[in-house]
Amino acid sequence: MGMTKVKKNKNDRNQSQEVYSTTTVALLKCKSYQLQNLKKQIAAGLNLTGIDPKIFKQQRVLLKPNLLMAASAEKAITTHPEFFRAVAQIVKSHGGRPIVAENPAITRLDQILPKVGYDRIIEEEGIEIGRMQETRILHYKKARKFKRFEISQAFFHADIIINLPKFKTHGITYVTGAVKNLFGVIPGLLKSQWHTKAPNAEEFSEMILDLNEALLKGFQPPKRFLHIMDAIVGMEGEGPGPTGRPREIGAIIIGENPIAVDYAAVKVVGLEANKVRTITSGLTRGLGISNLDEIRMVGEPMENMKIDHFQPTRHSIFGNLVSRWPFTSNTVRNWITEKPVPQPENCTLCLKCMEICPAKAITRPGKKGKRPAFDYDKCIRCYCCMEICPQAAIGLKKGRLQWMIEKTSLS
Q1: What's the pLDDT tens digit per position in 173-205?
Q2: Looking at the structure, do residues 142 and 188 belong to the same domain, yes or no?
């Protein structure tokens, strides 16, 4: 999952050697989705990270984009279709067989592809569509807590998996990038069920890391993962769905370690890495690396990549606090955490929010109702409803005492 670097101990007369792992991440500047330039920059990034495209020859290469929901490329909710095409063409040109594999939040993959601009590319490039509905259990008995995941069988049939995340803010994990994008190996509504098993930010992030570890170590034989991040236009604010805002970042980030790729992205946009639990806890687990100093960044210098005033999500700042009693009680949680609130002027009553809600906290409106009914005693604050609402009709409302706690915590 990276390179190995040897450090000599000068105090040892026998010159014993301390061996520790490092991983390389390539930063590339890219301002548009023009196909030839994308291919040039991605190929350069593979070269910089020591990844020889010849590894694709005669291999089944799964391309796993972020296709959260039906949305146009301009909204920056999904991995841009031309970004996907560029990687697919590189795989094909080196003798590989590209296969698109993704599990959208609700809609089946084959149904969503025309709505996100992928159908024409798949037809023109002769790309296979993975059979995502058939599942198989991936076990990893050494995981910290969750040792069993039901994932799409297509991932078992792959030789190489290329993760194509879109860099966005996220209400639970702070950002969504390479680590979080692999949650999409789990089919449709099975993903929302995980929010009930891991109902707060701490547990959910740890579950995502258990999944990443299972993907890395649970397959027999192990599979090779590459991570090529679309951060040309990302998302800031209340991501990762329609309530977020597109923001030009101008970056492609490539590496074999998802934690390192995410860390590089967070540095580019100027967010705080210590708020990304999938990074901090991932390091303590030793998922390929155990220290940020082990990340070797190559390509464009970081100082040339950084952008200013990138806006994080406004979701609750309390972190681990709300995962402990008494803050887990319904009453206290309603006082101190934001709750999702539908806006009747924008709501079309499509009820996708009700369909995806893992806690069954959303029901149909009454006879004269203009918006779904939310039961906040049942609501687990997973914000899946916000992510999936096609009209961006669900916003956040602060808890009654939240303003006071925020003021105290920031003073």
Answers
A1: 999 999 999 999 999 889 988 988 998 889 999
A2: yes
Report the alpha-carbon distance of residue 129 to residue 102 in Å, rounded: 9
Q: Answer yes or no: do 170 and 53 share one domain.
A: yes
- Taking every pair of Cα atoms in the chain, the longest distance, rounded to a whole number of angstroms, is 84
Residue 315: its pLDDT value, please?
67
Q: Is the dihedral of CA 261, 256, 57, 98 positive or negative?
A: negative
- State the pLDDT at residue 336: 56
Statement to judge: residues 269 and 387 lie in one domain? no
pLDDT at 320 over 50: no
Q: Answer positive or negative: Cα dihedral of 76, 256, 306, 271.
A: positive
Burial label, 257 (beta-carbon count in 10 A; 0-12, 13-18, 19+): buried
Q: At what angle do helices 258-269 and 277-285 cross, to 10 degrees?
A: 140
| Residue 361 binned pLDDT confidence (cut-offs 50, 70, 90) | very high
Q: Domain for residue 11, yes or no?
A: no
> Based on the structure, what is the number of domains in the chain?
2
Would strands 224-237 and 244-255 be described as parallel, antiparallel, or unpaired? antiparallel
Range of the domain at 403: 319-410
Q: 221: cis peptide before it, omega within 30°? A: yes
Contact 19, 291 (CB under 8 A): no
Same structural domain for residues 230 and 343?
Answer: no
The verdict on residue 150 lying in a domain is: yes
Residue 123, in any domain of the structure: yes
Give this prediction's pTM.
Answer: 0.86
Query: Tokens 């220290």 appear where?
Result: 291
Same domain, 74 and 107: yes
Report pLDDT for 337.
74
Lowest mean pLDDT among 106-115, 227-236, 330-339: 330-339
User: Exposed, middle or buried by CB within 10 Å (0-12, 13-18, 19+), for 54?
Assistant: exposed
| CATH code of residue 390 | 3.30.70.20
